[in-house]
Amino acid sequence: MKVIGYWMPTLGLAACLATTGCKKEEPAAPAVPAAPVEQPAAVDAGTPVDAGAAPTPAPTPETQTPPSAPTPGPQAARPEDPKNREWTAGRVSIPRPSMKPVTLLEVREGRNEGFDRVVFQFEGDQVPGYHLEYIDKPVIKCGSGDPTDVAGQGWLQVRITPAQAHADGKVTVASRERKPKLPVLEELELTCDFEGEVTWVLGVKHPNKYRVMELREPTRLVVDVQH
């Protein structure tokens, strides 16, 4: 009986080693506690959050829109504006120094509803520069420097340049002193035709407001003086 009892355990061990079914049971590893869940940062109560909107990606340098230029304010009227139709008693000056001299062909005057009109007509298709303002006496002739008497209580000087009132040694406007019978315009006189400058003085009853316009076909400079 003792012999049999000793053989049985040995036989069982050999049978176990001959098969792959015998495994030593490992003790179970202790459970690892789960990491604490990080709570989201608090949102400023004063800033609403759109939970349904996707986050907007930051623009790349290639797609960034450059800052827009500041919007310019209202632009003042350009000095070369050919239709200065505002009534004024001050100065009107439109310089055009780069032009070639333009020949004055004709000067006309007439009465209109509410104003007297003087028209200066030129050769070509471009009105030269001009400067208008009321001046004080004495009215001076540019060539001689002598004073000249012009009727009226106001004297509106119209200086046109570069221009000339002559061509090939002959004057292009024969009547250089005239006294029209108009409500406000009492006299017109050419006071300068020298070195690219032509100047007329309009003698008026009162230094009323006037306006200046440029017209085409034919080329004209128009001066209206209010009654």
Automatic annotation (TrEMBL):
Q: Where are the transmembrane segments?
A: none
Q: Which PROSITE patterns match?
A: PROKAR_LIPOPROTEIN (PS51257)
Give residue spans, biased composition: Low complexity. Answer: 28-66
Q: Which Pfam families does UniProt cross-reference here?
A: AMIN-like
Annotated AMIN-like domain ranges read 103-227
Task: List, as start-end ranges, the regions of compositional bias called Basic and acidic residues.
Answer: 78-88
Q: Where is this region: Disordered?
A: 28-95
Highest taxon of the source?
Bacteria
InterPro entries with a match to the protein in the record: AMIN-like
- Name of this protein: AMIN-like domain-containing protein
- Species annotation: Archangium minus
Upper lineage is:
Bacteria, Pseudomonadati, Myxococcota, Myxococcia, Myxococcales
